[in-house]
Amino acid sequence: MRFFVLGASGGVGSCLLEQAVARGHRITAQTRSTAKLTETEAVAVAVGSPTDEAFLRRHIAGHDAVVICLGIDRQGRTTLFSETTKAVVEAMQAAGVRRLVAVTGIGAGDSKGHGGWLYNRIIYPLFTRNRYADKDRQEAIIEQSGLDWTIVRPAPFSARAGSGPLQVHTEIPHGLQLRSITRAEVAGFILDSLEGARFLRRKPFIGHS
User: What residues contact residue 175 under an 8 Å CB cut-off, 6+ apart?
Assistant: First the structure.
């Protein structure tokens, strides 16, 4: 398959590129800087802004799916996720590409309050709440797009895999707390979802308790 990946040089994006190539897929990797990615036979690098619809229209055509796994490191208000998603949806509709996977995370929609005590009480209110306000807008744009979408909501990122199998919930039980997941696990879940056409128009919440 051919995937167009936004945020390809980030934590999830770089894991996704590595695993996708190992599985025999081809990638067009969006980045703002050529210094962050190396072009190979399986990976084409597209340099441009993720909110630039004209740039996206030039590069999305001919792909089987688009993956949005952007991240930011600032704490203030942002519209990056919603503006990117609006431009992506319009470019996909123009190109006739229907399959979209977007990574939002713990704090979007009804996943809020399900990331464990440290995340719920400290990290979310002090560090990530502004980005999740925009990710709520992002999810609404995706749900209204008419595309074949999947919204992946990972638990808080960890350097080490949690114990036990990965939990996947499309309905979040009362009291559920998923406290950790690795970026590599998220990348693998994205690829499994794309290869198996799984979780269409669903919002799986994934991680370890």
Answer: none
The domain locations on the chain are 2-207
Torsion of CA 125, 127, 130, 136, to 10 degrees: -80
Reduce the DSSP state of residue 133 to 3 states and report it.
helix
* Fold held by 2-207: Rossmann fold (3.40.50)
pTM of the model: 0.95
Tell me which residue of 188, 207, 198 sits closest to 17, measured CA to CA. Answer: 188
Query: pLDDT digit string (tens) for 45-57?
Result: 999 999 999 999 9
d(CA 153, CA 181) in angstroms, rounded, equals: 11
Q: Tokens 């431009």, residue?
A: 87
How far is the C-alpha of 112 from the C-alpha of 120, rounded, in Å?
8
Contact 72, 10 (CB under 8 A): no
